[in-house]
Amino acid sequence: MREMAAVIIVLMILTVLFAVLSFWTSRVRIKNIWKTVEANFNQHEATSKTDYLVRRITFSLVEFNSSTKWMYRNVRLYKYSTVVLSGLATVILGLNFSYFFSDRTAYLSVTKDIALILNTIVTALATLSIFWNADKYWIQNKIIKHQLRQLKSAIEFERSENKELTDEQLKSFFNKHQRILR
After folding, report:
1. Spatial CB neighbours of 100, under 8 Å, sequence gap ≥ 6
2. Is the model more confident about 168 or about 132?
3. What does the pLDDT look like over 73-84, one tens digit per residue?
4. HSE toward the beta carbon, residue 63, CA cutoff 13 A
């Protein structure tokens, strides 16, 4: 029985470490994306303030688009794995294959232990999901991406009427861009 408890504890620790590692790598990945975007952005000289602002918004869109896709995949991975593991634990507890085994009590003990391990992993994943609230960040990124698209469309519409925007319009659009990113 002690061996089983040790295995359960090790699996819980590994699950928590995996979740922490995936969260940490996501933060590092987003920072690296920003560094890449900034490096690419600074390589090109803008011909005008309007072009500068449009390029800045385009780079912001690229970054939020990739992080939104990445978050969507990870949110689904957490949710689907939680559902599958929970269902698997329920099925293991509900099935009765004891007639294949000579010792019924050993069979029941093993199935209970397996279900306990699976439910422990599910509990750890659900707890981490609550603390990190990845759904909220994913939705926020989608909203920011949508607002950036709207801003870019508004600038392009204004540019279609005039080749260059006035300083007042540029300041207004730039301030909107900054507010969106906050």
Report:
1. none
2. 168
3. 878 888 888 888
4. 22
DSSP conformational letter for 25: H
pLDDT digits (tens, 9 = 90+) for 4-22: 556 666 766 776 666 666 6
Euclidean distance between CA atoms 82 and 88, whole angstroms? 10
Angle at 79 between CA 144 and CA 148, to 5 degrees: 10
pTM: 0.59
- Distance between CA atoms of 23 and 171, rounded to whole angstroms? 37
47 burial via Cβ count (<10 Å: 0-12, 13-18, 19+): exposed
**Residue 146: how many other CB atoms lie within 10 Å:** 12
Q: Using a CB cutoff of 8 Å and minimum separation of 24, what contacts does 21-29 make?
A: 22/74, 23/128, 23/132, 26/70, 26/71, 26/74, 29/70
For residues 30 and 6, what is the distance between their CA atoms, to the nearest angstrom? Answer: 36
